[in-house]
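Researcher: Structure for this, please.
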Amino acid sequence: MRVSSTAIPAICSDNDLLYTTGKGLSIKGQVKEVGAPIPCRIRLFEKISGRIVFETVTDQNGFYEFDHLTKTKFFIVAHHPLSQFNAVIQDNVVPE
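Model: Predicted structure, token format:
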């Protein structure tokens, strides 16, 4: 569940948009710290260019969703809410 988000336009090198106005494809997940869900800030980046596509905050149970995506590779960065740990990166994520 996406609590809040900010869309930032990003364009591939071949000028194809990375997200669509329709529902499109999505990436869903949950952030956990030592097995326990935690709320935190999540950012979605295009893998090829490194440009940020979306930023959101998880719900209280650590769940997030990025939708309106096209089929390309992304990476996700989760930031610890108290900055006690380095950010966690999930690489080569492809929306379904």
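Researcher: Any notable elements?
Model: The two ends are 16 Å apart (CA to CA). The beta strands are 4-7, 25-30, 32-33, 36-37, 41-46, 52-57, 63-69, 74-79, 88-93.
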